[in-house]
């Protein structure tokens, strides 16, 4: 194991995981709102604290994780979360993308009878800004419209998301992470370019 | 129906248990199920329900959901049929006082997490609150189709003809839909969902509620959810619109004509009174008078 894998995980695993979960639950039930992850975690590069905390909160031996973050980050995740590392994104329950995210269509979609058995994509982006500008979001969890500006996703992402949403109830759910901030889009959310 | 300080944890939190009783592996599994449930409103997500220190049917599903969600900064309210002072509500509130050390309250407005058996509080819920329902039977079709594999297929196909036929037969035989509680709802226009045995009177409160609604069925091992501001429509027909029932009376204590009433038999000569089922609502109204 490399030295980077020995950098600490969650300082207080019980309280930090609870706080991170509430941030993600809140983000997922109010798509487009940006929440701050309360845990103080310093993962190896290129992982950002929010993505690392979300995975340490949700991933374990039952959930294969695929990541493009390189061997240091993968070893750190496997050590602290105890999760198996998938060799390809098609086999993973959590897909952590630090670079350009893999096509949503190749990830586990679930079935019509068991749509909950789908992958969750955790995408690291450059910045998240809620409130004004950027995407117009509609769907469950949103009273009228939420605005979310996301910097650092491929330009054709909204088209890919439209195809993901059209497959409902099957489909991938998205967690966006930038620094210590997290936002989420469940498969029900409609994105319109602002 | 007093507001006696019965929430005292009786010696502080219990030693030897993890925060909120459940182990972290279980919480993680339930948390993953909750996130998928929120992403697919009204869809029942299976989970590995654990044995809890009380029997199935006493709210084990709701307790496991609450234990996975609650944190030290939360304020918990527990109601049973609207009341804060009944056995089930007192026991569960005391349980979380002891295993999580959280603050508890009887006031709807002050709570961040509300666990409920069979009612939605009269006080409108707000954004940021979480309502956790205890669910005995999550499958709305179970009296019409006993095969679980078949109900899963019907949900996948969105084929809810069975339930429409049931409502039609009620109307044909009795002139109205005869379901007074656990009245089936369509969530976000896609999934038929059991609202748990709340009175049909409460169904309209679920529609576009600002709070997050989570449902836990311990014995049946299912979790489902309704995100905030999500359309929840009680099934009906154009010529027989949904009509929630309420006893045509005023509360004997606070005089409310808007709240849901319990009928209380007062003697063996046919005497009866109607009282608000929501004790917090009733007490606040009396305090204001």
Automatic annotation (TrEMBL), chain A:
Any Gene Ontology biological process: organic phosphonate metabolic process
Pfam families listed in its UniProt record: PhnH
Record's keyword terms, sorted: Transferase
Signal peptide: none
One MF term in the entry's GO annotations: alpha-D-ribose 1-methylphosphonate 5-triphosphate synthase activity
Enzyme class: transferase
Enzyme Commission code(s) on record: 2.7.8.37
Protein name per its UniProtKB record: Alpha-D-ribose 1-methylphosphonate 5-triphosphate synthase subunit PhnH
UniProt organism field: uncultured Acetobacteraceae bacterium
From TrEMBL, chain B:
Record-listed E.C. numbers: 4.7.1.1
Keyword Iron: yes
Residues that span the membrane, as ranges: none
Catalytic reaction annotation: alpha-D-ribose 1-methylphosphonate 5-phosphate + AH2 + S-adenosyl-L-methionine = alpha-D-ribose 1,2-cyclic phosphate 5-phosphate + methane + 5'-deoxyadenosine + L-methionine + A + H(+)
GO biological process assignments: organic phosphonate catabolic process
Keyword Secreted: no
Gene Ontology MF terms in the entry: 4 iron, 4 sulfur cluster binding; alpha-D-ribose 1-methylphosphonate 5-phosphate C-P-lyase activity; metal ion binding
Keywords of the record: 4Fe-4S, Iron, Iron-sulfur, Lyase, Metal-binding, S-adenosyl-L-methionine
Function: Catalyzes the breakage of the C-P bond in alpha-D-ribose 1-methylphosphonate 5-phosphate (PRPn) forming alpha-D-ribose.
Similarity section: Belongs to the PhnJ family.
The protein's name in its UniProt record: Alpha-D-ribose 1-methylphosphonate 5-phosphate C-P lyase
Organism: uncultured Acetobacteraceae bacterium
